[in-house]
Amino acid sequence: MDNKWNKWIYRLWSPVYDSFFNAGPFLKARQKVFNNLDFHKGDKILFVVVGTGADIYQVPMELVDITAIDYSEEMLAQAKRKFSDAAITFLQMDAQNLTFSDEDFDYVIASLVLSVVPDYDRTFSEMVRVTKAHGKIIIFDKFTSQLTPLKRLIRPMIKVLGTDIGLSFEKIYENYKDNKLIIEVNQPILFGEMYRNIRIRKS
């Protein structure tokens, strides 16, 4: 996967994305991810790869300061149309190269992001960088604890569709243990153990 390919793939996905990933079990999973998150007035929230804006419905828009970025103009346009009357800053931006200052956001939220970006390590590093001390990183994505022979075989084919089924969150996190990232939640949330809800606090 690369940015050029992803832009083409998500141009195709944009008109129908919500029918698959913001409905039924995916919608229920998104709602669970945001359960018990303690937002305060004025909290700065960054949605990394906001897509069509599915997660924005899950936060108190009148209470917080929202910035939402996506590399795909078509996906971003869908989100802008949904929230045209809301005070949300929408920006076309590469998640691998965020243009924000260090420690800028109280919450950094990434749903179905690390499995679709070309460089998940760099993206996660950027997410950590822009999160404030004592801020939180919220991740909803698919990860695998074991890359079986079948997954190894079909992984390249699935990547053509714009997603990676072979990511290990533990391997991603291993590089950041010294950065004082504390995992508060790491639990399966959808389709057995395929999709996980991960909540990290930056100390």
Summarize the structure in words:
This protein is an alpha/beta fold. The protein has one domain (3-202): Vaccinia Virus protein VP39 (Rossmann fold, 3-Layer(aba) Sandwich). 32% of the residues lie in helices and 26% in strands. It has helices at residues 3-13, 17-21, 24-34, 73-82, 120-130, 149-159, 169-174; strands at 44-48, 65-70, 88-92, 105-111, 131-142, 181-190, 195-202. Strands 3-2-1-4-5-7-6 form a seven-stranded mixed beta sheet. Strand 4 (105-111), helix 5 (120-130) and strand 5 form a beta-alpha-beta unit. The model has no long low-confidence stretch (mean pLDDT 92).
Short description:
This protein has 203 residues and is α/β, with parallel strands linked by helices. Helices cover 32% and strands 26% of the residues.
